[in-house]
Amino acid sequence: MDIKDLIDKKNALSKKADEIIESVSDDSDEAKLKEVDDILEQIKQTDVLISKKKQISEYKRIQKELKAQDAIEKENDDQDKEDIEDDKEDEIAEKKEKSMDSFNINKGIVPQELKKGRYVQKMIARDMVKYLGEEVATNTISNSTSKQYSRGLIKSALTTAQPVVAPEVREFIDLLTADCVVRKYAKIVSMPNNNLTYPRQRLGATAYWVGEGASYTPSAADFDTINFLGKKLSGFTYTTLEFNNFSLAGAVDHITSDLANQVALAEDRSFIMGAGVGALAPTYNLISNAGTTITSTGDDSVSVAKDLGTIKASLLTKFINIANGVVFGSPAVFTFLENLQTSFGVYPFRDEIRAGKLQGFTIAQTAQIPSNVETGSGDTAATNGSPLIFAAPQHLIIADSGKYALRSTDVGSFDDGGTTVNAFQQDMIAYKLANWVDFGVEHNAAVAVLNTVGWSSLNVAGAYQLVENVNTSASGASAVTGKK
Predict the structure, then answer these.
(1) What is the pLDDT of residues 417-451, one digit of tens each?
(2) Which residues contact residue 56 at a Cβ distance below 8 angstroms, ignoring those fewer than 6 apart?
(3) Which of 302, 282, 306 is nearest to 294 (CA)?
(4) End-to-end alpha-carbon separation of the chain, Å?
(5) CB proximity list for 457: less than 8 A, separation 6 or greater
(6) Helical H segments across 399-470, by residue range
């Protein structure tokens, strides 16, 4: 059992313990209290296993780095730099030319001609050049290894047309992006084989009042299945090789982390809106497949209260347990409700909204839900609507492969806005991250949508990140301007 499975087990045990504790009426219920003690002991044992697995994983990582370092230290080739370039330049060019035909993603970010472990050495060499200068740095490195190796390392660290001394970089400023909301509340199940089936009971037995010895009408249960099939969601980005060389050592971690975040946001957007996600995306989404969909009747306090009551009742009358209910919506709509007044100047929803609730449902606001959805048709059409999605999260299911597959390369080609870009030719490193996921709901009745009309004066489309203008005023170095 891997670390993720252990964490999932721990969370499931914690949830079970909470449910039992809530059901205990007093201290005399010894059986339930003992069951809670047993669960807490299992949680403690699970924590120990998680800690040990993390220690083993870290030990393996360190051993792998040490082996790579040993391999580098044994390298002692006295062949002159010019001879190496003459002998190997054609061979390297031929390998890269073959790789350019298709986008073959390779693990890691190390350029093709560098041996394993050399990238870390490049980062060290870059900093030595910064503080000692290129010539002193080369001589310093050559004292502990071959002169050819030191020259090659410096050349690799300092790409052409770039400053010899890298800029001082202290930290990385992350992109402003929307928060993912569905995964915080939905039930996440493992789908290791990229397919999963849930048998579902659609119709049950029925009871009748009958007299003694009288005949009765039999009833039968009816079943179907809910099927999940892994849909591949992939994100792609790239940086210049110079940016990696002259930025801080952890820049690549930020880049790949942001890539994972963008993939998660695209997943979140398709689960909620479903619009424009393509034929290969999950077929189910909260907006289109809700069991109940109604349109608001007005934007005054009385109409709003009536509509909120109606949508809540639509769930309760279908036997849906909304004790842990969640409402997904645009920030603009919740801001409108917070500031809505009655004719007497009272704010009926303000206290509840500021407590993070609406009609008892936990608020999950996201900028990915637009507030300018078109409502009506013909002359009555208006782009001032926004959906509020009320759901019982215990019935929302995310079927997940459980991991992201990350690949990167400095060779190959890709399409950027209709233009074919060759990564090697433009000194770029391309990153691709993929995940396999599907989304569904156990019962459509567990989701209800209230299409609000006129509840917000902010007519804006959904957004998942903020794009700012490039700042090129400080320097011409690519560490400042980014890719061109």
Answers:
(1) 788 888 887 878 888 888 889 999 999 999 999 99
(2) none
(3) 306
(4) 46
(5) 336, 384
(6) none
